[in-house]
Amino acid sequence: VSLQMMKHAWDNYKRYAWGLNELKPISKQGHSSNLFGNIQGATIVDALDTLYIMEMKEEFKEAKEWVEKNLDFNVNAEISVFEVNIRFVGGLLSAYYLSGEEVFRKKAVELGEKLLPAFNTPTGIPWALLNIKSGIGRNWPWASGGSSILAEFGTLHLEFVHLSHLSGNPVFAEKVMNIRKVLNRLDKPEGLYPNYLNPSSGQWGQHHVSIGGLGDSFYEYLLKAWLMTDKTDEEGKKMYYDAVQAIETHLIRKSSGGLTYIAEWKGGLLEHKMGHLTCFAGGMFALGADGAPNDRTGHHIELGAEIARTCHESYDRTSMKLGPEAFRFDGGVEAIATRQNEKYYILRPEVIETYMYMWRLTHDPKYRQWGWEAVEALEKHCRVDGGYSGIRDVYNNHESHDDVQQSFFLSETLKYLYLLFSEDDLLPFEHWVFNTEAHPLPVLHKDNGNKEDDQK
Ligand code: DMJ
């Protein structure tokens, strides 16, 4: 089924928005987000590995030809370093490792080089935004005191280690190892990492902590850095398990109805709200269970299972059976969005991602059932003639479509669905880690740095 869904999403993108970043499936035209500046083709690059894995050979070939002829980074535009890294660099790296086609390696390294000026700050903590022609960087104007964002500068590690591995140029890995060094020197309030860090002073901004937006994938990349180095990156491992310990103590709570959730922390006060983005953490806890210190393996799996259950409830308690952007545990509600501007669903993957990890790690059939419920809801409410669209209010009985087919729907949501219903030996966890955009990167085995060639 996810293959049919992919075909529908891809065919319509091809028909109405080919070469542009994303598709507007209702108005049937291209959609350009300013996150990618003038770089084009986000959907193509994000979808390459999904096409490959689903064996959509014709489509993969067309996509590859487009990359060869048209993917151009010589543009005078300001881009988001994080978004371009996870979608474009990550997408190209996976396409290379899966297919062995040199063009993807070349483009990934070329783009990585374009991102390097972002690290020209007093601390080496990169800017959020970069003009890839002039090399001038800056931060989001809304970020606390000119800060860079934890989830942005903390989500370059996996891709940059691979860029060094593939190019033979150590500079990429050096840049991300330096980020670690800066973080390790800093005092952490209650052992927690604030979402904001000023790249000039090297000091934290506001003490806001989140495992959802602004924080999320920083934690994911600590764990995966350790896994991706064949469990040799002991520093990444320690940082991950220490962070999880602090998160458990200060952020994880149980509602009176028995639902475990991860709250947000604002200078010591809890906001009892959990984002859709935060739901990825169920999968992360389960994936990290194996290495948990002090016989806590079972506990981490259980934590993953509880987060999965809570996130499933956030879907189940809507009329469309698709989860809202954020849900609350206060004012008498549990796992329900109370604010109008938190009721939307934009085809995000995190809940399905967690089902996929929980399925692989426990084989409890309920995760496939829950994934199937999501498929039915997507087909019923998000599928339109011209592709798939997000929804403005999942509590309404009537769809109001937002008219965007996000590129991560093809790279993540559909890939995780496909993996959820595939055998475990398709991209097995011993050999692959997924970047935060679901692009698989091979584990760099200690005995043989090129072991990934055996995994094709
Ligand atoms: C994706 O780009 C990535 O999963 C990122 O880590 C968070 N946001 C979107 C999907 O929701």
From TrEMBL:
<keyword id="KW-0106">Calcium</keyword>
<dbReference type="GO" id="GO:0005783">
    <property type="term" value="C:endoplasmic reticulum"/>
</dbReference>
<protein>
    <recommendedName>
        <fullName>alpha-1,2-Mannosidase</fullName>
        <ecNumber>3.2.1.-</ecNumber>
    </recommendedName>
</protein>
<dbReference type="GO" id="GO:0070062">
    <property type="term" value="C:extracellular exosome"/>
</dbReference>
<keyword id="KW-0378">Hydrolase</keyword>
<keyword id="KW-0326">Glycosidase</keyword>
<dbReference type="GO" id="GO:0005975">
    <property type="term" value="P:carbohydrate metabolic process"/>
</dbReference>
<comment type="pathway">
    <text>Protein modification; protein glycosylation.</text>
</comment>
<keyword id="KW-0812">Transmembrane</keyword>
<feature type="active site">
    <location>
        <position position="216"/>
    </location>
</feature>
<dbReference type="InterPro" id="IPR050749">
    <property type="entry name" value="Glycosyl_Hydrolase_47"/>
</dbReference>
<dbReference type="Pfam" id="PF01532">
    <property type="entry name" value="Glyco_hydro_47"/>
</dbReference>
<dbReference type="GO" id="GO:0005509">
    <property type="term" value="F:calcium ion binding"/>
</dbReference>
<feature type="active site" description="Proton donor">
    <location>
        <position position="83"/>
    </location>
</feature>
<feature type="binding site">
    <location>
        <position position="436"/>
    </location>
    <ligand>
        <name>Ca(2+)</name>
    </ligand>
</feature>
<dbReference type="InterPro" id="IPR012341">
    <property type="entry name" value="6hp_glycosidase-like_sf"/>
</dbReference>
<keyword id="KW-0735">Signal-anchor</keyword>
<keyword id="KW-0472">Membrane</keyword>
<dbReference type="GO" id="GO:0000139">
    <property type="term" value="C:Golgi membrane"/>
</dbReference>
<dbReference type="GO" id="GO:0004571">
    <property type="term" value="F:mannosyl-oligosaccharide 1,2-alpha-mannosidase activity"/>
</dbReference>
<feature type="active site" description="Proton donor">
    <location>
        <position position="325"/>
    </location>
</feature>
<comment type="function">
    <text>Involved in the maturation of Asn-linked oligosaccharides. Progressively trim alpha-1,2-linked mannose residues from Man(9)GlcNAc(2) to produce Man(5)GlcNAc(2).</text>
</comment>
<dbReference type="InterPro" id="IPR036026">
    <property type="entry name" value="Seven-hairpin_glycosidases"/>
</dbReference>
<keyword id="KW-0479">Metal-binding</keyword>
<dbReference type="InterPro" id="IPR001382">
    <property type="entry name" value="Glyco_hydro_47"/>
</dbReference>
<feature type="disulfide bond">
    <location>
        <begin position="279"/>
        <end position="311"/>
    </location>
</feature>
<keyword id="KW-1015">Disulfide bond</keyword>
<feature type="active site">
    <location>
        <position position="350"/>
    </location>
</feature>
<comment type="similarity">
    <text>Belongs to the glycosyl hydrolase 47 family.</text>
</comment>
